[in-house]
């Protein structure tokens, strides 16, 4: 049922954004599971409203798991390639738990790396995790990719991320989930800045 649910989410989000012109500059991120990446009709569900309405794909970011990128790289590269011409953005989440190669990252052409919550939750007290955050951030910036820290829960964590120059942060320390109508945060275009 996940591909059908994801189609519904995208269609309803794009309809809502189309009906609320003031929200067309907001950044919307949608996590996509493996089943949706295998749905051959899903890219057209995204492309059709982007082309038929005054909507810009660069306010729509699809989030994919690092584990998915490692287990099915050709599928992920193909999927990203289908929506990049419409200016859609892409993020890989859970970065740092596996060994994603730089070559694969180049082929995928993602816009954001989301540093795993497992690392963020412990990097203030674990030097090895601090080194991981630093290395991921440097590698991403060298490749022109922005970084997002997942699960930021405290001011202390946020302060350290700023010191490391991580681009963005997400988590309850930034904002609690709210209904779409109440959402006001926009990016630097995008996710809340670290």
Explain what you see.
This protein has a 6-stranded parallel beta sheet. α1 (2-19) packs parallel to α3. The protein has helices at 2-19, 34-37, 42-52, 66-71, 73-83, 102-108, 117-120, 127-142, 155-164, and strands at 28-31, 60-65, 89-95, 112-115, 146-149, 168-169. The longest helix has 18 residues, at 2-19. α6 (102-108) links the parallel β3 (89-95) and β4 (112-115). The protein is an alpha/beta fold and 194 residues long. The protein is built from 9 helices and 6 strands, in the order αβααβααβαβααβαβ. Mean pLDDT is 89; it is low at 184-193.
Protein traits:
6 strands, 194 residues, 9 helices, disordered C terminus, globular, TIM Barrel, alpha/beta
Strand order of the largest sheet: 1-2-3-4-5-6
Instruction: Tally the helices.
Output: 9
Q: Please tell me how large the radius of gyration is.
A: 17 Å
Low-pLDDT windows of residues? 184-193
The rounded distance between the terminal residues' Cα atoms is 35 Å
> In percent, how much strand structure appears in the residues?
5-15%
CATH-level-4 superfamily name = EAL domain
According to CATH, what is the class? Alpha Beta
- Give me the secondary-structure category: alpha/beta
Write down the secondary-structure element order: HEHHEHHEHEHHEHE
């Amino acid at each position: 049922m996940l591909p059908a649910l994801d189609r519904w989410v995208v269609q309803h989000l794009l309809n809502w954004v189309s009906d609320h012109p003031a929200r067309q500059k907001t950044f919307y991120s949608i996590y996509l599971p493996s089943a949706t990446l295998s749905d051959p009709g899903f890219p057209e569900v995204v492309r059709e409203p982007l082309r038929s309405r005054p909507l810009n794909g660069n306010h729509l970011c699809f989030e994919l798991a690092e584990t998915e990128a490692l287990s099915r790289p050709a599928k992920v590269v193909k999927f990203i390639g289908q929506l990049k011409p419409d200016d859609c953005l892409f993020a890989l989440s859970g970065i740092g738990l596996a060994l994603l190669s730089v070559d694969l990252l180049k082929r995928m052409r993602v816009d954001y790396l989301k540093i795993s919550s497992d690392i963020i939750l412990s990097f203030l007290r674990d030097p090895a995790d601090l080194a991981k955050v630093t290395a991921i951030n440097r590698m991403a910036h060298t490749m022109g990719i922005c970084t997002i820290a997942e699960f930021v829960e405290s001011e202390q964590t946020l302060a350290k991320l700023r010191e490391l120059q991580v681009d963005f942060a997400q988590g309850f320390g930034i904002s609690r989930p709210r209904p779409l109508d109440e959402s006001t945060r926009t990016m630097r275009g995008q996710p809340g800045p670290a």
